[in-house]
């Protein structure tokens, strides 16, 4: 944003003049006169305004600035200084006059010179809206239903239907004189003071001297700007806004322009009002090009379409924009088709308040109003408790929605949602539906009155699924079920986590099988996996005897292949990832349930003992303690052990000094496919030997272990002179203990 301060005036600083005459400057860029300092204040002010208008347009409208912000500020402040010294030189359209000081008592009505019409809307979601419109136009124009060489397809301007606030900008002799809202179409409200603060709206139009040119378009807010605005509101503890459209509309109708100035508003031009002394181009599309030339923002997401069907037709545009809709930076609610030729527009004329030559073809609305019938709590795969609004079914974003997420307790409270409230539900693309906000009681006749006493929602203190304690860690937004492996809602994910390659590596135990096992109630806990016999597995739907046998084998293998870090990681304790699991295993040497005549271990470690482990802080330590404080989690570990799952243990007090390990202090990089070792196995072996595995090659790399189809890492190693070994070389390194 332009806005930093700088003091010296152009002409007194060489950079100001060089920057605008530099070779990179565009042909249309104004040039700073060499004798700037010798000019009269009035001439200087005019030069500065021309420069500021040009660069503001590049910055705000074209999004392609040509000048560093500080340089712009320098020009801006030079103009401010001149205007301060010579107030008579101040013009209403000076770039310094964006925010005017006074607060209005109310908005003044403005009668539109040319009424602001509305537009007929086709509400179907398919292509028939475009086809019906084209058919109607052909009929009205006396053309045959199907195009012929003599009666070719009608040319249409197809553009976006922006979801904001319609505005009429009245330029007289090129200067913005008045801005008015649509109102009832005949009479709107004067919002000139606010529109002045919108940087994208030029205060004067380039190359235009016509007595009157009224430009119509939409003021809107981008979604990212809206999110940032809400973020800032939240930080200041102020109320957040419901959606970009209402926020934009509210901002434009402010009485205090300083408030509008703080809202990131934008504008797109799409039409004309009264025109005097300007030759309106013969087609709508060329007219929009001309407005863009004058410095007005015009969306580039528009096209000239031919007829309804075919590659260049309206239907194709409707589909293309429909797909792009969710990735546009702002909300649209459809597309607009307009007969492109002005002559034909005139022939077609109007029916009541709508032009016959235009139609809006809407997409399914992404937001709808409905009522909250209840608030449920769902337990997610990691135990996260999500409050979910149970809704009166509503058709939004192309589907019927009956539930919408409220994210967490804090979001719910912030939005102030209670059972019985009328809320706005949003479903954009494939994103899960969410409650955007509550419609205030009685607003626009929408929100029903809230019952006199509706209790505020509370998070349950026990998991609604398994009744374990619900916890929320300090500084966290989310409430969680502490039930872990015991909670059925978390079971599927827990099983998959346990079975994954980097944990117990149970081949064949994938998502589909886990779903079957859990849904049928055959497996409820991790230990029950090991009770699965061939018979039970083979009895499952779509399970061949051979596959069942493979799974039985994989389960048996996993019992003996386990290591303490993999087993521990597989338990899925929050905050215990692979690295922490390794650190814990190395530190304690045992789980605590082993039948080895010793005592102590990870399960029984106190908070202080856990905190003594490398890289384990209070959050991780507490999480481990909470997990093993639940008796059912201890049972799981013990039952797995009883089922025959074994891992090597060691006595950390008798641990060899790490410095004597063969790869102590060495960094290795793996690349390509090794003949027998998987990437994970090689990594485990290297780490067990005290080495570190890095992801990229640098001068600090000691060895690169390269297999088949090694690529850029091998090249890099060679260019840096790093020793390259194959799998045998790695084995030799590990065995010989040479380093
Ligand atoms: S043309 C005579 N073009 O939709 C035609 N309107 O009912 C006048 N809108 O509130 C409108 N995008 O603000 C036109 N590309 C577009 C538009 C557009 C949004 C709004 C407009 C008005 C409503 C028309």
Tell me what the structure shows.
- By secondary structure, the chain is α+β, with helices and mostly antiparallel strands.
- Strands 14, 15, 16, 17, 18, 19 and 20 form a seven-stranded antiparallel β-sheet that branches.
- Strand 15 and strand 16 form a beta hairpin.
- Helix 13 runs antiparallel to helix 14 and helix 18 crosses helix 19.
- The protein is elongated and about 100 Å long.
- The N terminus is likely disordered.
- The structure holds 2-(butylsulfanyl)adenosine.
- 2-(butylsulfanyl)adenosine (IVH) binds next to strand 3 and strand 8.
- The site of 2-(butylsulfanyl)adenosine has 14 residues, from strand 3 and strand 8.
| Total number of helices | 25
**Unreliable segments (pLDDT under 50, ≥5 consecutive)?**
1-25
Give the CA-based shape.
Answer: elongated
Main pleated-sheet profile: 7 strands, antiparallel
Portion of residues within helices: 25-40%
Whole-angstrom Rg: 35 Å
How are the elements arranged and paired?
Layout: H1 14-21, H2 41-61, H3 69-85, E1 109-111, E2 120-122, H4 128-140, E3 155-162, E4 165-172, E5 175-181, E6 187-189, H5 192-195, E7 212-221, H6 223-235, H7 244-252, H8 257-261, E8 265-276, H9 284-293, E9 303-306, H10 314-324, E10 332-339, H11 342-348, E11 350-351, E12 354-355, E13 358-362, E14 367-379, E15 384-396, E16 399-405, H12 409-415, E17 422-426, E18 434-438, E19 470-471, E20 479-481, H13 488-499, H14 511-519, H15 526-529, H16 534-538, H17 545-561, H18 564-570, H19 578-588, H20 607-611, H21 618-629, H22 631-642, E21 667-671, H23 679-688, E22 692-694, E23 703-706, H24 712-720, E24 723-725, H25 727-736
Parallel strand pairs: 2-13, 21-22, 21-23, 23-24
Antiparallel strand pairs: 1-6, 3-9, 3-10, 4-5, 4-7, 7-8, 10-13, 11-12, 14-15, 14-17, 15-16, 15-20, 17-18, 19-20
Helix pairs in contact: 2-3, 13-14, 18-19
Bound molecules: 2-(butylsulfanyl)adenosine.
């Amino acid at each position: 944003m332009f806005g930093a301060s700088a003091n010296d005036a152009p002409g007194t600083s060489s950079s100001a003049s060089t920057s605008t005459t530099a070779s990179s400057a565009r042909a249309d860029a104004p040039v700073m006169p060499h004798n700037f300092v010798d000019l009269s204040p009035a001439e200087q002010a005019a030069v500065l305004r021309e420069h500021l208008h040009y660069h503001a347009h590049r910055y705000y409208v074209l999004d392609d600035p040509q000048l560093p912000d500080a340089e712009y500020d320098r020009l801006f402040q030079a103009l401010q200084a001149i205007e301060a010294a010579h107030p008579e030189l101040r013009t209403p359209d000076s770039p310094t006059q964006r925010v005017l000081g006074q607060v209005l008592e109310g908005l003044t009505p403005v009668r539109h010179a040319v009424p602001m019409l509305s537009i007929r809307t086709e509400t179907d979601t398919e292509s028939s809206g475009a086809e019906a419109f084209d058919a109607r136009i052909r009929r009205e124009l006396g053309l045959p239903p199907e195009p012929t060489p003599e009666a070719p397809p009608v040319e249409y301007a197809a553009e976006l239907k922006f979801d904001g606030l319609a505005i009429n900008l009245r330029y007289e002799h090129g200067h913005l004189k008045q801005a008015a809202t649509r109102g009832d179409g005949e009479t709107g409200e004067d919002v000139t003071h606010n529109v002045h603060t919108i940087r994208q709206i030029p205060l004067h139009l380039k190359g235009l001297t016509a007595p009157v040119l009224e430009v119509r378009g939409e003021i809107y807010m981008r979604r990212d700007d809206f999110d940032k605005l809400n973020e800032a509101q939240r930080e200041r503890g102020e109320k957040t806004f419901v959606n970009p459209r209402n926020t934009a509309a509210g901002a434009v109708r402010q009485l205090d322009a300083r408030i509008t100035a703080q809202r990131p508003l934008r504008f797109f031009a799409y039409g004309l009002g009264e025109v005097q002394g300007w030759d309106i181009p013969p087609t709508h599309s060329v007219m929009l090009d001309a407005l863009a030339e004058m410095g007005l923002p015009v969306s580039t997401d528009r096209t000239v379409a031919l007829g309804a069907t075919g590659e260049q037709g309206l239907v194709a545009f409707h589909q293309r924009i429909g797909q792009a809709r969710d990735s546009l930076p702002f909300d649209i609610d459809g597309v607009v088709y307009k007969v492109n030729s002005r002559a034909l527009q005139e022939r077609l004329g109007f029916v009541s308040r709508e032009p016959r030559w235009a139609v809006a073809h809407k997409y399914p609305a992404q937001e709808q109003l409905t009522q909250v019938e209840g608030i449920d709590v769902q337990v997610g795969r990691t135990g996260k408790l999500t409050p979910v609004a149970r809704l009166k079914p509503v058709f939004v974003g192309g589907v019927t929605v009956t539930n919408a997420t409220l994210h967490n307790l804090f979001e719910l409270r912030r939005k102030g949602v209670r059972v019985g409230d009328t809320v706005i539900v949003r479903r954009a693309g494939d994103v899960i539906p969410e409650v955007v906000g509550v419609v205030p009681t009685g607003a626009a006749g929408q929100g029903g009155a809230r019952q006199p006493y509706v209790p505020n929602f509370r998070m349950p203190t026990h998991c609604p699924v398994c009744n374990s304690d619900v916890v929320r860690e300090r500084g966290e937004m989310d409430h969680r079920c502490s039930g872990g492996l015991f909670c059925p809602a978390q079971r599927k994910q827990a099983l998959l986590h346990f079975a994954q390659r980097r944990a117990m590596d149970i081949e064949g135990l994938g998502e589909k099988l886990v779903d079957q096992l859990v849904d049928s109630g055959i497996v409820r806990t991790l230990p029950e996996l090991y009770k699965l016999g061939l018979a039970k597995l083979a009895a499952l739907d779509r399970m061949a005897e051979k596959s069942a046998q493979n799974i039985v084998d994989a389960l048996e293998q996993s019992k003996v292949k386990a290591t303490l870090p993999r087993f521990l990681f597989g338990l899925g304790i929050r905050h215990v990832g692979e690295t922490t699991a390794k650190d814990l295993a190395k530190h304690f040497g045992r789980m605590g349930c082993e039948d080895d005549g010793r005592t102590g271990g990870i399960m029984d470690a106190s908070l202080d003992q856990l905190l003594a482990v490398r890289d384990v802080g209070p959050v991780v330590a507490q999480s481990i303690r909470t997990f093993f404080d639940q008796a059912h989690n201890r049972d799981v570990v013990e039952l797995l052990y009883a089922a025959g799952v074994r891992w090597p243990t060691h006595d950390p007090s008798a641990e060899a000094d790490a410095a004597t390990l063969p790869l102590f202090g060495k960094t290795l990089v793996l690349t390509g496919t090794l003949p027998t070792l998987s990437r994970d196995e090689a990594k485990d072996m290297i780490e067990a030997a005290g080495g570190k595995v890095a992801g990229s090659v640098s001068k600090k790399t000691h060895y690169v272990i390269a297999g088949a189809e090694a690529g850029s890492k091998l090249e890099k190693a060679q260019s840096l002179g790093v020793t390259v070994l194959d799998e045998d070389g790695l084995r030799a390194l590990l065995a010989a203990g040479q380093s």
